[in-house]
Design a protein that fits this description.
The chain is of the alpha+beta class. It is built from 1 helix and 5 strands; from the N terminus they run E-E-H-E-E-E. The two termini are 30 Å apart. Strand 3 and strand 4 form a beta hairpin.
């Protein structure tokens, strides 16, 4: 995000740059149309983590409390990286899947419309 400083000679220190996360990177993950989670959840993850491990280990910890999470058919999930559809490689790392520090990853589950069919 760009910042417009009051003084032209201002040079701020980014407090959330990747070097401050000890080998981790921030990844924002959102489940579209499931508003029990109103905004993406931001988690630190290692860039070398396989995408399959993100799905198998991280997502259950983040979204597993949702009553429909166990019903997800992961073969039908639609993935969005920075708002654009993409097909992740489960065996490749997050970095190799194009997920860098502060990337936004969203997933859609078309067969699940949220509780009561209204996204909640």
């Amino acid at each position: 995000m760009s910042v417009k400083a009051i003084r032209p000679d201002y040079h701020g220190d980014m407090k959330d740059s990747v070097d401050k996360f000890h080998g981790q990177q921030l990844l924002a993950i959102g489940w579209d149309q499931h508003l029990m989670y109103a905004t993406p959840l931001c988690v630190p993850v290692p860039p070398q983590m396989p995408f399959g491990a993100l799905v198998g280990q991280v997502l259950p910890a983040l979204f597993g409390q949702h009553p429909q999470f166990a019903q997800i058919d992961w073969t039908r999930v639609q993935w969005l990286r920075a708002g654009q559809p993409f097909e992740p490689d489960a065996d490749a790392s997050l970095a190799d899947n194009g997920l860098a520090h502060k990337s936004v990853l969203r997933f859609r589950t078309p067969e699940l419309a949220g509780l009561y069919g209204v996204g909640f």
